[in-house]
Write a structure and sequence with these properties.
Blueprint: H1 3-35, E1 41-42, H2 45-50, H3 54-60, H4 70-78, H5 87-100, H6 107-123, H7 130-154, H8 159-183, E2 188-189, H9 196-210, H10 214-221, H11 227-236, H12 244-254, H13 262-276, H14 280-285, H15 288-311
Antiparallel strand pairs: 1-2
Helix pairs in contact: 1-5, 1-7, 1-8, 1-9, 5-6, 6-7, 8-9, 8-12, 8-15, 12-13, 13-15
């Protein structure tokens, strides 16, 4: 397979998974905002920093400060074409890639991505209104899952499919840590210290629900939601498809089917070891966001090794 085609397949799967999880990230805030009493202060700004776009947002909105309206943040994360990690940019990127490799993937994939692109163009502004936001997010997530289902059901298990799986594994692991980061980043300011624990658990509940993980959490953990148990499940569970551990295991299964690249194996083993040695109890009591940032750095290094080893070698 040409390295250009492999690169496109890898990025196509990343863009689709990034779009899905960007919508889920906004869902964390939207669900919390609906559940909280009006007297509790909710801040949307940490979500922008979670996706690494704080500097871009500040440059575009120099007077925004830390107390940013939800409509501004939602527009930036979902619709702003100047934000390279926005939902709109991700879907547009996936669509442009498909233009150049349409003979590589089934026609139904093109139709599904194009439908999603047209929906964003026609209904994107609805997401700025709270009453329509969850409906919009659900429609986007369903569209992305449809694309993933078509790829899983209709694509031959050749080397191209392995690059799709590789991109999916890296992107989902990264986005899961970012959604966890959002839940641990002080979105809620409680009225009193006595309320802090209850609201913190509400944040973890929203994180689980946004990742469609709540029911599986209850099956595996069978205890009330807490930071410790949510972190253990989303980071280290080996059976839930969006847990970081599961995504890394997926990559470990993919690499033996591809040409060997020692640099990729080395970076993957480093992040796997870091995750296995993590203590969810300690993380929940201290600063989960710092650990998520560290994992994201290692995943970025893994991505760099993939690019160097397979696309520009």
């Amino acid at each position: 397979m040409l390295s250009r085609v492999a690169d496109n397949l890898y990025w196509f799967s990343r863009y689709i998974r990034r779009a899905e999880n960007t919508a889920r990230l906004v869902g964390v805030g939207s669900m919390l905002q609906l559940d909280l009493p009006r007297s509790v202060r909710f801040s949307w700004r940490p979500m922008i920093d979670t996706v690494g776009s704080g500097e871009i947002f500040t440059a575009l909105h120099p007077d925004a400060g830390t107390d940013v309206a939800d409509a501004e943040v939602v527009r930036f994360l979902l619709l702003d074409e100047q934000n390279p990690s926005s939902l709109t940019v991700s879907i547009s990127g996936a669509r442009e890639i498909l233009r150049s490799i349409r003979d590589t993937l089934p026609q139904e994939v093109w139709e599904a991505v194009n439908d999603l692109h047209l929906y964003l163009g026609g209904s994107g502004e609805r997401a700025l209104q709270r009453r329509y936001r969850l409906e919009f997010i659900t429609r986007v997530v369903d569209g992305c899952l449809k694309v993933s289902g078509l790829l899983s059901a209709n694509v031959s298990r050749d080397i191209g499919y392995q690059f799709l799986r590789l991109g999916t594994g890296i992107e989902q692991a990264d986005m899961t840590t970012r959604i966890i980061d959002a839940g641990a980043s002080g979105l809620i300011t409680p009225r009193s210290e006595e309320d802090r624990e209850a609201f913190r658990n509400m944040q973890w509940m929203a994180v689980l629900r946004s990742l469609a993980a709540y029911q599986m959490y209850r099956r595996h953990i069978r205890q009330r939601v807490s930071g410790e148990h949510a972190l253990r499940f989303l980071l280290q569970n080996t059976e839930f498809p969006r847990s970081v551990q599961f995504c890394l295991a997926r990559i470990q299964h993919v690499l033996p089917t591809m040409p060997p690249r020692p640099g990729v194996d080395r970076h993957l083993n480093r992040v796997v070891g870091m995750l296995r040695n993590a203590d969810p109890v300690w993380l929940a009591a201290h600063d989960p966001a710092a650990f998520m940032d560290e994992i994201q750095v290692h995943l970025s290094n893994l991505h760099g090794a993939v690019v160097e080893g397979y696309f520009y070698n």
